[in-house]
Amino acid sequence: MPMNPEYLPEAGLLLAGIFAWVVALRFLFTRRLSNALRAGAAGLGCFILAFVLVKTVHNSPGPPPVLLPASENSMSLVLGGVVLRVAPSNQYVLSVDNRRFLELELRRSQLRVTSLVGSGIGTATKVVQNAFPVRTGDVHPSRDAHTLFVEAEGKHVLRVHYAEPLRIEIAGDFYDRKTIGAVLTSVHLISFQKGIEWTGGRIQEGTTLDIRKAGTGRIDFGPSGSIRVVPRSTRGE
Predict the structure, then answer these.
(1) Do strands 91-96 and 99-107 pair parallel, antiparallel, or not at all (unpaired)?
(2) Which tens digits make up the pLDDT trace of 95-108?
(3) Where are the domains of the chain?
């Protein structure tokens, strides 16, 4: 049976100890007592050293496991259950065909949310940095330390969950305000409910998309179903 190379030093010491004791016996037969004692002591020392190595080196628990930090080169925006991996930034702006509907701003580990969300049939209410206008109708915000809720007609029209530094979960329906004739109208842009759905396309819940290589900038959902990152230096940003 092959020997584990880790035990070669101990095996060498045992063989040296056996050899030393054989020599000690030969000295005894020839009545050379002093040489026999020295050879016997050398052999005993080899046995003891081999025993110590086995107990201390091979039975030691070893170093503690290395804990690797979580990757800090990626932020996960979970939009309606779709995981969008984006480059780290202090601000995230989302738009549909260049019409902005959501802004996320990180300030000293705090998340500020600005958006337009549904507050009734065909109407929308603006959320300004986690605060609401005085006249919000049936919109009732309630939140804990990590979650922002907006409710309308007994339903959650916006939920932003921020319990982890590199993960923000968002669910809701988002709008834009557009003047048609002389009337200011709320236009539904996109939904983060069991996936992402807008006029340009649909992404199923549970999908993971990685757009980190595109860098930082406004995240735009295009009319052809594409998702692009518009750099802040681009005109109109």
Answers:
(1) antiparallel
(2) 999 999 999 998 87
(3) 7-58, 75-230
